Every structure is written in structure tokens, then in C-alpha cells.
Amino acid sequence: MNILSVTYFLNGFLMIAMPIGLTIYLTRKFKQDWRLFWIGAATLIFSQVLHIPFNALVGPVFNQFGFIALPVVLQNVILSVFLGLSAGLFEELSRYAMYRWWAKDARSWGKGLLAGAGHGGSEAIILGLLVLYGYVQMIIVRGMDISTLVTPDKVELAKAQIQAYWSAPLYMTMLGALERLFTIPLHMACSVLVLQAFTRKKFWWVGLALLYHALADGVAVFVSQIGFSALAIEGIIGIFAIVSMVIVFALRQPEPSANPVSAPISTPEFKLGPVYETKENLDKTRYQ
Question: What pTM, to 2 d.p., does this model score?
Fold first, then answer.
């Protein structure tokens, strides 16, 4: 068996298994159910319903304003800034809306992590399923006559694509899982940052999350546009993953107690002394 058959499958499997394992750990650690994971996942889908069509307009709009006439370096800078800001804008404002109107009870560090795991984890699961779908397709067509699947003018192109897939360097077949491993912490960091807008009552935390998300996405777009290798790009994303974990633990707060201990009720202290059998004391005990 070709080793790539194993690594390609493992790539897609890990993209699905990592967020599931992380969420199992977080739910047990913070004694929560999966509700916040699913809320975070729905928030991601909602943000992309708006984000993807918006990004589809980038090319036509830029061309209409003569973007293509600019120097290539300037084009790359503008495109990176634009795409980075659009990712930050749609995803972080959606995250704010989630806390504001949907997850109103998510006001602790642990709950913020769970919502972030749902946001970034659901993205990893969706991409992992797509990777496995492509893998199954390539397994099926590897031994087939391509001319029966595509038109004659596309046979050579299809053969070249299949050959490239099954002759890729071993490390390239695992980069999807590596990128998800680095990306999920970014979503968790942004989730905790936006949460501060509610726990600290300062909206500028949302702006900070937006700018951090925009910086991470914008840098990734820029280095890919100027020709960095896949490993170099993943290395840069890995640096943002480390920064994200620093943000997560820097904002760590103790979890609220599920059963708060009430303060003891103070009672007046009575001191008993000796009672002497005098005529006055005996009169006080007599029934009236």
C-alpha cells in the first residue's frame, strides 16, 4: 500500500478528531455539556454565510477601480489587508452577537474556551470531511480509465492532477491537520478576547479581537501571495498559535463556583451566670 494512502486519510481524520477530543476535554474539565460548542459552530456558519459572498465581490470591485494596474507588491498588500479585515469583521462581530443575544450565560473563561472550540473546531471538522471526500474520490479514480469520466480535452489535465496527488511529498499530505492544530487556538483566543467586552464592560476588547484576527489572516494571505513555501506559511501560522495560547492564559480567570457557600448567620451570644435564690429572683419566677 502507498504510504500516502495512510497519511492522506490520517490528515482528514485528525482534522475531525482533534476538535472533538479538545471539546471532550473542555466539557469534562469545566463540567459543561456540548451546548456552547454547537453555539460556536452555528456562529461560524452564520459568519461565513455573509463573509464568503462578500469576499467573492473583491475581485470584480478591485478590477473596476483599476486595482490590477497597481504594482504587484502593492496589490498583495491591499488584498491582504482587505481580506484580513473582512475575516476579523465578520467573525468577531458574529462572535459578539453570539455572546450578546444567544450565549448570554457564557461569562466565564471556561465557557469562552468552549465557544471558541466550537467556532474553530467546526471549521476543522467541515474541512476534514471535505479532505476525506477528496481522498475517497482519488482512491476510486486511481485505477480507473480517466477517459470514461471526463471529456477528451480534459483527460491529460485530469491525469496530471491525479499523478500530482499521489506523488506529493509526505509532509505535504499532513499540512491540513497541522494548520487546524494552529488555527483552533486563534479562535479560542479571539473568543476569550470578545468575552472581555461583557465581563469587563469595555467594547474595545471586540476591536482588539478583530484586529488580532485580521493581522493573523492578513499575514497568512500576504506570505502565500509572495511565494513563501507551504512549510514557511505553516510556521508563521504556528507563531500566531503560540501568541494565541499566551492570550488565552493571560486572560484566565477562576471559574465561578457552582454551589457558592453562603456566609454563616451570626447569632447573639448569651452567657449564663449563676442564679441566686434571693427573694427578688424568686418573685420574678412566680406566675402572674
Answer: 0.85
